[in-house]
Amino acid sequence: MAKIKFTKTELKKQQDNKKQFERFLPTLQLKKQQLQMEVRQSAEALEENLREQRRLEKELAVCIAFFGDAAVSELVSSNVVISRVVTGTANIAGINIPTFDHVEFEPQHIDLMTTDWYVDDALAALKSAASLREAHRVLQVQYDLLAAELRTTSQRVNLFEKVKIPECKENIRRICIFLGDMNTSAVARCKIAKGKAEERAS
């Protein structure tokens, strides 16, 4: 505990600090609750994305059975090239996080008249898989940022609740006792001095 001065000025300072901590605490607690909810939702979104990726992988396994010919496999993979991942930004509980919008792919170079019917479906499935992977990367960044902010906010809530406010209360109590004792002592000295003055007068 920091050393304090046993003065009225210090008493007012400690009272002001206590009021300030108590005023900010509800806001921090609200932010903590909001972040807990957002972190939970973010974790669910990540899990849902992984489930969708697994489902798509099973579908692709069926398509891959058709790709015995290396030329067809090359045709499909060379036509699923990401040109850019489009993201945005959202503000959640006072922090900016990235949001996934969509993936843009390089133009396809396929002659639909000369390729097999299943190539089109395979390309669509691979594009969906690539989009899901990119979305997962963004969702992971979201989760990491929210979880880090939740840790920081929880630490601040604990600091205010368990350290700063109790510390101020204890300092106020000690200063009040000291000032009360000083006041009692001053009154006693005053009475003694008054008594002596009356004795001398008589």
- Label the CATH architecture: Orthogonal Bundle
CATH fold node name = Helix Hairpins
**Overall tally of structural domains:** 1
Please tally the helical runs, counting DSSP H or I stretches of 4 or more residues.
3
Q: Estimate the helix proportion, in percent.
A: over 70%
Strand content: 5-15%
What is Rg?
35 Å
Outline the fold blueprint:
Blueprint: H1 8-64, H2 70-78, E1 82-92, E2 95-105, H3 117-201
Antiparallel strand pairs: 1-2
Helix pairs in contact: 1-3, 2-3
Would you kindly provide a written description of the structure presented here, covering whatever features stand out?
The protein is mainly alpha-helical. The chain has one domain (8-193): Orthogonal Bundle (Helix Hairpins). 75% of the residues lie in helices and 11% in strands. It is built from 3 helices and 2 strands; from the N terminus they run ααββα. The protein has helices at 8-64, 70-78, 117-201, and strands at residues 82-92, 95-105. Strands 1-2 form a two-stranded antiparallel sheet. α1 (8-64) packs antiparallel against α3 (117-201) and α2 packs across α3. The protein is rod-shaped.
